[in-house]
Design brief:
A hairpin with a 6-residue loop joins strand 4 (101-106) and strand 5. The protein has two domains: 11-183 and 193-247, no CATH class; 262-314. 43% of the residues lie in helices and 19% in strands. By secondary structure, the protein is of the alpha/beta class. The radius of gyration is 24 Å and the shape is elongated. The longest helix is centred in the C-terminal third of the chain and has 35 residues, at 249-283.
Length: 314
């Protein structure tokens, strides 16, 4: 049992490290700029390199809590009350759900800002609908602005927010834009206010690397970065040659680490699939010799797999 626990902890740690590297890669300003060009109306058609300068400061990666009441932190500075993003040490509120990536973007007018959140998912969740979670996140991005970005009842100072979800392992490449609309049910009174405050973008990435085509430009980049199949050289080659992204040491190290981790995760998945096959054949009455021949293992190795799981099945 100790070995099983160690293996489980190791696998979980491996997944966590992979997720961390994936967020770091997505949180690179040039990658975020490519995402902004395809998702935020003001930057559409621009060269991503020119958009980088509009991203203010360094993006917050896995440090800002999503939970109501914990997204902001109050500080005293020169006798004044300052409210900012809560970036306290993660250990203080360990176990909380945090925004993957969150950052401010200055608009081209040099005055207005939008708040952008980017979330990465290895696949579409089965325990809840991803759009529901996105609605919650985008709502939090608005409500947490009170006292930080607008005070008292100055609701006209609310900043536009974008919650962008990158979901891997989908059946097809897709992109949906979910936003507010105003349906005139009776009369035509022009209610004042902004319908563009809430913006959700859902980006579905298929398993197969999409072709090099303008239509799939962003999908190919994201698929390359997060792929568990491509080698380090293949990834860096696509990033440099097709997207003219300068590969610095941080990108190179994160890509290399992700490739190493993905190999371990794939091996773990392959071993789990093999165990399932052995157990299924055992339950159906196949002999140890027949199972060993099918999975290309020795009889002793097949017996070891069955012994490991049998107490659970009893």
């Amino acid at each position: 049992m100790d070995t099983e626990i160690k293996n489980a902890v190791s696998a979980t740690d491996q997944d966590a490290q992979y997720d961390d590297k994936a967020k770091r890669l997505l949180g690179n300003k040039i990658i975020l700029a490519h995402i902004l060009v395809k998702t935020v109306d003001e930057f559409k058609g621009m060269n991503p390199k020119d958009v980088v300068s509009y991203i203010e400061g360094e993006p917050f990666i896995s440090v800002v809590p999503v939970e109501p009441g914990l997204t902001n932190v109050e500080k005293e500075e020169n006798g004044q009350r300052i409210v900012g993003m809560n970036t306290e040490n993660a250990e203080i509120n360990e176990g909380l759900i945090r925004f993957d990536i969150i950052f401010y973007v200055r608009m081209k007018d040099g005055i207005s800002q939008v708040i952008v959140n980017v979330e990465g998912q290895k696949d579409e969740p089965t325990s809840y609908h991803i759009l529901n979670r996105a609605v919650f996140y985008v709502s939090r991005l608005v409500s947490s602005q009170k006292e930080r970005d607008f005070v008292k009842t100055n609701y006209n100072d609310i900043k536009r927010v974008f919650s962008i979800w990158v979901c891997m392992g989908m059946d097809e490449n897709s992109m949906d834009y979910v936003h507010l609309t105003d349906d005139k049910l009776l009369g035509s009174y022009p209610w004042k206010g902004r319908l563009d405050l809430l913006n959700i973008v859902l980006i579905g990435i298929a398993n197969e690397l999409p072709e090099h085509d303008e239509k799939y430009e962003l999908h190919r980049l994201l698929s390359t970065l997060l792929s568990m199949e491509l080698t380090v050289d293949e990834k860096l080659g696509i990033i440099e040659k097709e997207y003219s992204i300068v590969v610095d040491n941080r990108i190179r190290e994160d890509v290399s680490a992700m490739c190493n981790l993905s190999q371990g995760i794939k091996e773990k998945g392959g071993a789990e699939r093999e165990e399932k096959i052995i157990l299924n054949m055992h339950r159906k009455g196949y002999t140890l010799e027949q199972i060993a021949e099918c999975v290309e293992k020795t009889i002793e190795e097949v017996e070891a797999v069955i012994r490991k799981i049998e107490p659970v099945l009893a």
